[in-house]
Amino acid sequence: MIAVVFPVLLLLAAVLTQLAGNGVLPRNRVAGIRVRSTLRSDSGWVAGHKAAASWGWAGFAVSAAAGVAVLLLDGTIAVVLAVVVVVVALVATVAVSLYLASRAARAAGESTLTAA
Fold first, then answer.
1. What is the dihedral of CA 38, 40, 46, 48, to 10 degrees?
2. Domain chopping of the chain, boundaries
């Protein structure tokens, strides 16, 4: 089950992050990277999501590959190892994406403030 659920969640997150980074998904409190710095301004929202998008896709790719491995592999050790990879990909993707998004959104907010 974990082999399917986590990759699907990461795919959804990657798609939403890409849409927000492209300006298609507007700033909101329901979907996207919702931290203080990304919610502060539209430019911060877009910049934060652009910064995090590649990590979202990378996390999805790693978790999808590990998920396929879980479904195809025989043996408890192989399945446990693949599940661990899926979970690590999820945690790493979320952590790095949040950090990059917050940093980029703060930088965008600062450039907006200095331009005003």
1. -30
2. 2-115
